[in-house]
Design brief:
The structure is a homodimer of 342-residue chains. Chain A is α/β, with parallel strands linked by helices. Chain A has three domains: 11-51, no CATH class; 62-172 and 307-330, Response regulator (Rossmann fold, 3-Layer(aba) Sandwich); 174-304, Rossmann fold (3-Layer(aba) Sandwich), CATH 3.40.50. The first copy, chain A, has helices at 11-18, 22-30, 38-51, 57-64, 80-95, 110-121, 137-152, 174-187, 203-218, 235-247, 260-272, 306-318; strands spanning 69-74, 99-104, 126-129, 156-161, 168-172, 193-197, 228-230, 254-257, 282-284, 301-303, 327-330, 333-335. At the A-B interface, α4, α5, β2, α6 and α11 of A face α4, α5, β2, α6 and α11 of B. The structure holds a DNA duplex (30 and 30 nucleotides).
Chain lengths: 342, 342
DNA sequence: CCGTTTTGGGTAAGCGCTTTCCAAGGAGGC
DNA sequence: GCCTCCTTGGAAAGCGCTTACCCAAAACGG
């Protein structure tokens, strides 16, 4: 048996000191609906305060069969997109005395399954998947199984991004957002396009690419296969892909990088090759990352209410479970800036 | 009593199915030093696998008197500086099967005390304070009391930043770093300086300011009080302070913003007033935030191994407690780039 | 070949809470 | 004034694990 940790005050101490039973002390401090007589309540609270009592989280979690932990799964914690989601989640969580634990898959989607299992073990009250879904049947099926087990064990699962899993989802309108962007760019007079897309399996990237094609198609502009470059979903991915395209002879067109950090990489690649943006090459991104608003030329992009998405996700967690999975739609808004001026 | 959560497999289930006692099952799956006979071990592992058993975290934590949670306290999770620290901490944590919970004080240092208390309640194995210490006797005393209680309860406390609290500390050489920067800037020929400092109480800001003054002093350059502007430790703070300085007539000098995001704000303010950097105003920052490396003009700054600091912090957590607080020194390195070219 | 260690399985006592169940007392209703 | 209903305190049964302790059997030493 572990020795009693020194200096740790238990509920029993408070109860004894206050001259009430354990049950009463519990009800006074962390209880639910049951009433406690006014004077007793006050005494207990006062004693707890005096002894600097803090409830033992694990013990509460065990007795209740549920902890107050919300797990947030991201692909990369340094990516400002995920930071913003985390910020939204944490702000709402703090208001409801929930603890947020963050785990990063480091861009290995198979780790999601593993982390959900861990969170199930922790009896977490919810798990929020913030990373893009991917096109991978086996993996997504295993994830569904694990998430179902998680919900069966009493937790809540919420997905941010694509509505591909049978759980409450905060869905971002990637496709319409990208279509709008395409329309605005053709409206500006652009006719020759290049898309820097992420890994082919990444749904966020696919949707943005497809939406962009939708938008171009409506204006009768075609995007040939050669004008789609797949790369990493990162700044360096954007840089490399842009560099390759330029070395392959691409000039005088408009580049759509499927996210802002890739767009920043693309601009850097252009600059390193002596090309001016937007004079020689126009560049647009997606997300409107706040940290990147000071990039010059300022980036044409699609503004996404990222923090709000995190807040919505936690709202799902806090609300009653619905009969069937709910979807909260969130839309982006095109912001034209210098990087695509013609 | 909470009803038994459906679909949740307990260690007892595994033991029964494997035909061994609870103790043996426990020792086979999560046990410490005690040996389990080979065949039994194998059976237990196989059964656990088949039943998809996951240990109940809270129960383990309660039985052991300690959870495997590490709490990370930051001032603002969207700030890339803290993201990088979190990244370093999480990378090491994942290797040691530790769970990281992040809490943001939202720049209200008094919340630190509160969060440490919560973590004590969670029986967290460690708490890492990542935000800058502040000059505030009462608050720091209360924090020390709380952290001492935390360690008395068996946890580990680690501080990143200034060595002001009697706990293991990863100390960043802000003062020498800023002094080096000052030396290099005077070396470049700069003679007229302006410092955009953070809130007066923030030690990170104070140390960088003081170090900068040290460095200037060695080269016989003085910094008058009028040339120090206090502002928020953020991008917008940098913008506002720079704008005020320019409106107050500041021209033709070198601006040291005590961190990179403030420097970015300062550059934006210059641009908005039609001033060129570095031709009209030179600007330097501190931190070398990766996300900001694509800002043009590229930023002269002091490179800080931020992720490494997070890693060191967790190394402290993982190592044995020493007799007296240990300090790991980390230094910055000046990187001259375009923004201060003369 | 017997006494002494060592090895390793099992039993059961907690860890610090929550919550069910029971009982006692008070408030109303007739 | 008796019965019922409501309120609220307390006793105690867990929640799912870890581990101290016990004990049988194997290993070892002389």
């Amino acid at each position: 048996m572990p020795q009693r940790a020194a200096g740790s005050v238990t509920l029993a101490d408070v109860a004894r000191e206050a001259g009430v039973s354990l049950a009463t002390a519990s009800r006074a401090l962390n209880g639910g609906t049951r009433q406690v007589r006014g004077d007793l309540l006050e005494t207990v609270l006062k004693v707890a305060e005096r002894l600097r009592y803090t409830a033992n989280g694990p013990a509460q979690a065990m007795a209740r069969g549920r902890s107050n932990v919300v797990g947030l799964l991201v692909h990369d914690i340094v990516d400002p997109y995920f930071c913003s989601i985390a910020s939204g989640v944490m702000r709402v969580a703090a208001r409801h005395r929930l603890t947020v634990t963050i785990a990063s898959t480091e861009n290995q989607p198979e780790k999601e399954v593993e982390y959900v299992a861990t969170l199930r073990g922790q009896r977490a009250s919810a798990v929020i998947l913030a990373g893009s879904r991917i096109e991978h049947r086996t993996l997504q099926r295993r994830l569904t199984v694990e998430l179902t087990a998680f919900e069966a064990a009493g937790g809540r699962a919420v997905v941010i991004g694509q509505n591909r899993l049978p759980f409450d989802t905060v869905q971002l309108g990637n496709r319409p957002g990208a279509a709008d962007l395409a329309a605005r760019l053709t409206g500006l007079g652009h006719r020759s396009f290049l898309v820097l897309a992420g890994p082919p399996a990444l749904l966020t990237s696919r949707d943005r690419l497809r939406g962009f094609q939708d938008g171009l198609g409506r204006d009768g502009v075609a995007l040939t296969a050669g004008r789609i470059v797949h790369t990493e979903f990162t700044r360096d991915g954007g840089y490399d892909a842009m560099a390759r395209a330029l070395d392959g002879g691409f000039r005088d067109g408009c580049v759509f990088a499927v996210n802002d950090v890739m767009a920043v990489g693309a601009i850097a690649a252009c600059r390193d090759r002596g090309l001016r943006v937007p004079a020689d090459v126009a560049v647009a991104g997606f997300d409107d990352i706040v940290t990147l608003r000071d990039i010059r030329p300022s980036l044409t992009t699609v503004r996404v209410p990222i923090e709000t998405m995190g807040e919505h996700a936690l709202d799902f967690v806090l609300s009653e479970r619905a009969g069937s999975p709910r979807v909260k739609h969130v839309t982006g808004e095109v912001v034209l800036r210098e990087s695509t001026r013609l």
